[in-house]
Amino acid sequence: MRHPFRHTAKFHLPWYVAAESACFHCKQQFAQVTMLIHHINNVHPEVESDAKFVPVKYQIWVQLINGLLRELARILEVSYPDGLIHFVSCLNIPGNKMYGASQNLTFRTEEVFLADIFCQINNLSKFNFNIFDNFGQTYIHSLLHWKILKIVISKLTAEQQNLIQTFEEQKDRFGLFNGCLSTKPTGPLMAVDAHFHLDQLMVKTGLTGIHELDDMGTSDLFKTKLSFLIANYCNPAKFPSSAERSEIRKDHRIRLSFGMHPRIVNLNSTSTLDRFFKNLTSILASSKNCIGRRMWIGYYR
C-alpha cells in the first residue's frame, strides 16, 4: 500500500482522529489536507473557519479523543487509563512483524502537535516523544499514533470496530454530547446541577433511592459523579414531608429549595393558595432557611 496512513485515517479510524485533515463541519476524514481544502472550497466555503481544525476546536477534539479512548477501554473491559495502557504494552508492538511495526515507531509531525494538545488540556505530564520506554511500556497519549490506534482497534470484533467508528454519531442521535464530557482522562466526570427536580426525576427514572443518582446518565458510555445538587420543589401539593426531607438531607451533596411555580398560582383557587402559603411558611420557619426571590420563596440548606 502506497500510503498506509491515509488509508487507515480514512477507512479504519474515527473521522476526527487525524484532525488536521478532518472536516469538523461535515464530520468527514479526507486523509490529506489538500483534499480537505478542496472540499471546503467547493462544498461550504462560507463555513471555512467552522470546518478546519483551528484553536477553538482544540478542546472539542480532546473531548472526542477522551471519549474514544474511554469507549475502547469499556469494550476491552479494562480500566481507564491504566488498564488500556497495560493492554497496549502487552501487545508487544515494537518490531513486531505481524503488525508491520518498526522497532522505533515515531510520531508524525501532525501527531506530535495533537499529542501535545492532548497532554496540555488533560493536565498530563509533558508530552513524551518516545512511544514506548525501555521496558516496553507506553503512555496514554501514544494511542494517538495512527498505527498504535489501528492495531488496538483491530483486536475488536467487526461489530465493535464499526461501533468505535460511529459511536459519536450514535450518541448524537440520542441527544448525548460528544466525547466523555471531561477534560481529564482519569476518574469519573464531576457534575454539579444547580436546578433539578428530584421528585420528578425519581418518578420518571424509577430510581429506588438517591444513591442511584451516581449511575444516572449514559453509564455505558461515561460515568458521572454528582458532587453538588440543588433540588427544587415548585408544587406545594407535592412537597416532601419533614421525614422525607430529613432522609434527603442525609446525602450531603443535596440542598433543597421550595417555592411556587407561576403556573400553580394561575391554576388554583385563593383558598388553596392560602393553604400552600401556610405550608411554605412552616418550612421557612425551620432552621437553615431564607427568603429567596422570583418564584423561589424558600431555600432549604
UniProtKB/TrEMBL annotation:
It comes from the Eukaryota. InterPro entries: Znf_C2H2_type. Residues 23-44 form the C2H2-type domain. This is C2H2-type domain-containing protein.
